[in-house]
Amino acid sequence: MSASAPSVLRARIDARALTENVRALRAQVGQRRLMCVVKADAYGHGLAQTVPALLRGGVRDLGAATLAEALEVHTLLLDLQSAVGTPGARQQPEAGDEEPSETLPAAGDVRILFWLHDSRTDLAPALRADIEVGCSTAEGVRRAAEAAGRTGVPARVHLKVDTGLGRGGFTAAQFSALLSELRGWTSTEAEHLRITGLMTHLANADVPGDPATAEQVAEFRARQRELTAFLDSVGGALGDPEALETHLANSPGALGGEEIGGTMVRVGLSTYGLSPFEDRTAADLGLRPAMSLVSRVLTVKEVPAGHGASYGLTYRAPADTRFALVAGGYADGLPRGASGRAQVTIRGRRFPVVGRIAMDQMVVDVGDAPVETGDAVVILGDGRTGPSAEEWGEWAGTINYEIVARVGPRVDREVASGPLPEPADANAAIDASRLRIRPDEDVSAGESADGNESADASRLRADPVRLRIADREGMAAFASGLAAVLRAGDVVVLTGNLGAGKTTLTQFLGRALDVRGRVSSPTFTIAREHPARGAGPGLVHVDAYRLTGAEEFEDLGLDAALDESVTVVEWGRGMAESLGDHLDIEILRTGALGAADAEVTGVGAPEADDGLETELTGAERSGDVPAGEAHSTAGGAAEPAGDALDDALGGSEGEDRGPAEDGAEDEERIVVIHPVGPAWEERGESLRGLVRAFPSASAHGAPAQPAPTVHAPTHQEGDRP
Question: Which residues carry this modification: N6-(pyridoxal phosphate)lysine (predicted)?
Answer without folding.
Answer: 39
